[in-house]
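Example (one chain per record):
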Amino acid sequence: MEDARHGGGQLSLAWHVAASCSGVFILKLARRECTSPCNERCSTAPPARSRDPSVQQRSAHPPPSALQILPLPHGAACALPAATRATTSLSQHKGQRFPRQRERVEWLSGGAVVADVPDVRIVHLNGSLQFLPFPPYAYTATVHAATYACRASSAAGTILSIPVHVRAVVRQYYEVQVYDEFVISGNTAVIKCHVPSFVRDYVRVTSWVRGNGERIVSDVLTGGRYSVFGTGELHIRHVTKADEFQSYHCETQHVLTDETTISAVAGRLMVNEPRSSVPPRITDSRSSVTASLRHTVELPCAAQGFPIPQYQWHRVTGKVEAPVVQDGRIQQVGGSLLIRQVTASDAGRYVCVVSSSVGSERAHTSLEVWAPLTAHITPQVQTVDVGGRATFNCSPEGFPQDTITWFKDGEALKVTERVRLVGQRMLVVEEVRREDRGMYQCLVSNLEGSAQGSAQLKLGDASPQLVDASGPQVVSPGARVTLSCVVQGSPPPTVTWEVRGLPAATADPRVHVNDKVDGDRVESRLNITGVRVEDGGVWGCVATNRAGRVEHTGRLNVRGPPTIRPMAPVSVVAGRTAHFDCIVAGFPIDSIYWEKNGVVLPVSERQEVLANGTLVVEEVSREADGGHYTCVAAAGDTTARANLQVNVMVPPKIDERMISLGSGFPAKSRARIMCVVERGDLPLSFSWTHDGRPISSTSPISIKYLDEVSSVLLFPSLRQEDGGSYTCTATNAVASDAQTVNLVVKVAPSWKEEPEDVSVVVGADLVLSCAALGSPTPTITWRRAEGASRGSTGPLLHSGTM
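Predicted structure:
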């Protein structure tokens, strides 16, 4: 907070960030609109970042759990209305619907619920927190220099928004100054724009103006002479006498008001021609620079001397200092080091070395790379029976990540022997109790801001989750191998094992499976004694219960010559993509490849051999792709070969014209539905369903086969209940095709309920019941007894009742 010591006048709220449960954006000063679109992130940033005039939102996208803090929709309440532009408010999204009986949204500050402060702060019923303009004497630190958070509660639980830092700033007049600077010809001149300390956090230098009115902007990206730094420095490289006596004004922008200011006094550049040697002296550098991920950053280094000094940048890695390798992304422009598309690996310590024949000087710069923080908890919704075990994993992204804090229903998580943290990122709840259900959050923070992720714990069955899996990767023949798979779920999952794509051969006396069940945790072990080369390959464990399944795979390599598991003939569908697996054992294996008719594949763009030996063929055709294939595994001079017969088959296609019906059939008439396959390989099988159910064997409907490509459904005497949808499915060895037709049985209308005479009091409501049967459903109309058609005096109800 800048207090009134720097000047009088009325205080207005200006925000480093103005935030809500619905989104975060930088608000302009009073009388300005917030015109920035609100995105789907909720974030905050401290005053250190207020120098950046751009509107940035950098934090976690709230996960889609049962309870969320939502962003403002685009175009809705993202700008201050004209009638309230002299106020500032923190708004909450009003479109979110919580169960009415427990819906509650409130603001907190210092752990207490925020209330109205007359003429200063208003808590609106719609969830907005509004701050009014105020004179200096009304400033209150607990209101105007405080941290706020939104708390939302529903039947699912309670969650908190990330912290929102509020600070009121004095609007006051300020001037910036530029002084004369001297520079040796040929060197880099450094002209500084001096900003008063009381506004330095909110003012940045945007450009410089030469005496002739020419505007100078940074052109370092194109290798130009000028670098303009937001902190107030102007670098002019390769100064000549032509630059002498030029005057320079700096232009600044207030990031909260958007007001621009030009220095009242211009600085001049004095260029000296040296008459003797001058040792190099660094005139401008930075001890630390912060850059945003994937942005461009310039590390400044300027010096003077004669002879004109040379610049070289080094990077310090551990105790080793080596020259920076320049490429298209990293290059040196004059004394500055320019890094485009900054990556996390660019962070570190750099050294600018300035040297000439009469001396040298060094300056160290630390580059910190910053990326927006996000946080995500998995699983986002977890259902666990009482007595079970729940595990939440917090996956933060961005850097740096200083702290990770956990919350339960809006309160700091109480860690016990039963509710414990594994590191900072994993939360484990043992022996789940009813009071454990609710909303869990992890909050990741650094000096730049914070982000949160949330998840819900429900009580009930829980699908299996993989806790741990282990096993050796390489063994020798004859060894004993134990593969372990630990899972948890409610009810306890059943674990099955696969080796090389087939169920584990438990009938083999060498193979044993042992399961240990402890509550909802299952530890399954596959033991193989006297392992053989052919036992090698991909193995997997599959855990299932009524709530779901989970699987894990790994690879066991057994030292020995290559072997390939024999491959049975396969049939594939023409026109589709086929995968042929070559299951290889032995270790090490140098290569796996396929041949067809003695030619090594691939021979066309439709074919690809994957690293694991799988052959992929796209748009399979009988002529080009049917036949014999050979998989070859090589290890040194030793090879193994296995043949595969591929049969390409055409899938069945039912003739839609044959199965079509007319507008319907009268009841008690004969009818038939034909199903004819116009193409597709034989043999074929047919099946019929009526409204999705197989046709009963006791039904009078009969199924006949005219030939190997035709099936007929016969109706000897149609009944009303025979109407509906009939589906014919034709299947061959590789695929199926189905066609559905709707059969309408025409049944003449008949009365189900006829109107009867009634008596009614004048002015009372009258209901006359009328219902009819028939197919299609009869249309019921009413007429007066005399036969004259009259408009309806009341609405027609179900079945024609009036």
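Caption: The CA atoms of residues 108 and 114 lie 5 Å apart.
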